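Ops channel
N.P.: pipeline sanity check, posting one input/output pair.
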């Protein structure tokens, strides 16, 4: 228990940041004092919750404070670009976090997660979902089909400026579908997973959309004198034909180690690779002097204010370009034989999903902690506001929050 100062708790309400900081036991960096952070809860609650106002800190390797700060930087950029609706979604995303604590680990839930394609936390959740679903589909498929092995294929196209990104992404997705209809590919490939990814060169300001594939082929594909084998040059030529372009696109092809029937633990590694992200962290945000900023807020790029409008130089283009490029597009695709009715709806609600997650490997349930996002800029962080001992998904033992152990 923190020692209680002899002040009436009711008086605290008008007190400045310096004093609430002490009372809440927040860290005492001098830069902290320059901006007020409201106590996240009524200080009277400390009777019930002695460590109220405690910062979340890292959860495993995840730094949710940093993710939220990056999210707010992207929201700011979207707002300045006139995309108020998108900005609002991101700004209201994960303003609360719920941490379920177990003996062997913690699980994080964002009850009001926005699911916006540009949101860093939504991307994490999507990544987890994609991975889980694809792993399930592959596992099931490889159990049924004997003698299958995996190939990792990357197909790329020329880099493009922001104002071409939506159009180029459409071309890439169409080319990917076309590639799978070509006779030599159909002969060789039994099943596939395809993921679209975007990278951006900060110096040239050019985007590089490309597709990662996990292909399943019968073992005979690699046999000596195989008639179905497609070498690197052939893949390159096939994708050039699919892309209908004048240049030879760069492709990369290699064996996916461990992906074979039945699916082993080692086979999950290439899967993790492929499901990892749509855009690398850092594509839209850079850090300077402890503060995150959206790329494109300093250097103008050509873009259109609206469809059909002329190109003109403007700021905050990358966030608009990526939002427009992914809008309504399916970035993860699987061959039909991998899909089944009950899954692969990639648009479903992640909330239910996460509650469904097994807790077997996490050990016994300890408690659930509730955190709220407070403060602005570098001062923003998640602060503890409540704790419950009712296990999520279980029958309630008692109402409301209880005191910590
Ligand atoms: Zn979000």
């Amino acid at each position: 228990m923190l020692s209680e100062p002899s002040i009436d708790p009711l008086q605290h309400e008008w007190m400045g940041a310096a004093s609430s900081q002490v009372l809440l036991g927040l860290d005492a960096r001098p830069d902290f004092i320059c901006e007020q952070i409201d106590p996240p809860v009524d200080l009277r609650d400390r009777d019930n919750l002695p460590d109220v106002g405690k910062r979340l800190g890292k959860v495993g390797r995840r730094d949710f404070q940093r993710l939220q700060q990056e999210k707010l930087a992207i929201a700011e950029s979207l707002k300045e670009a006139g995309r108020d609706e998108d900005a609002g979604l991101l700004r209201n995303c994960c303003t609360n976090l719920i941490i379920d604590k177990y003996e062997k680990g913690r699980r994080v839930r964002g009850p009001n997660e926005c699911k916006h394609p540009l949101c860093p936390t939504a991307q994490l959740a999507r990544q987890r979902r994609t991975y889980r679903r694809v792993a399930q589909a592959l596992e099931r498929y490889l159990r049924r089909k004997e003698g299958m092995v995996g190939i990792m294929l990357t197909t790329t196209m020329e880099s493009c400026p922001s104002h071409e990104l939506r159009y180029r992404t459409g071309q890439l997705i169409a080319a990917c579908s076309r590639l799978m209809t070509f006779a030599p590919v159909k002969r060789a490939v039994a099943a596939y997973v395809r993921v679209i990814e975007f990278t951006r060169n900060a110096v040239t300001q050019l985007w590089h959309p490309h597709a990662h594939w996990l292909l399943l082929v019968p073992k005979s594909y690699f046999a000596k004198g195989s008639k179905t084998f497609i070498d690197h040059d052939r893949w390159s030529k096939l994708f050039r034909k699919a892309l209908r372009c004048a240049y030879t696109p760069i492709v990369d092809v290699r064996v996916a180690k461990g992906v074979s029937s039945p699916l082993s633990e080692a086979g999950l590694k290439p899967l993790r690779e492929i499901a990892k992200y749509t855009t690398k962290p850092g594509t839209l945000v850079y850090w300077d002097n402890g503060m995150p900023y959206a790329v494109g807020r300093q250097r103008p790029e050509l873009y259109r204010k609206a469809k059909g409008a002329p190109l003109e130089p403007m700021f905050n283009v990358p966030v608009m370009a990526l939002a427009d490029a992914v809008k309504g597009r399916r970035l993860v695709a699987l061959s039909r034989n991998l899909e089944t009715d009950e899954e692969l709806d990639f648009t479903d609600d992640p909330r239910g999903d996460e509650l469904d997650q097994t807790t077997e490997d996490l050990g016994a349930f300890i408690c659930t902690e509730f955190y709220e996002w407070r403060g602005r800029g570098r001062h923003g962080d998640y602060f503890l506001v409540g704790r419950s001992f009712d296990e999520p998904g279980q029958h309630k033992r008692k109402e409301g929050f209880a005191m910590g152990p």
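N.P.: looks fine end to end. The mean pLDDT is 82.
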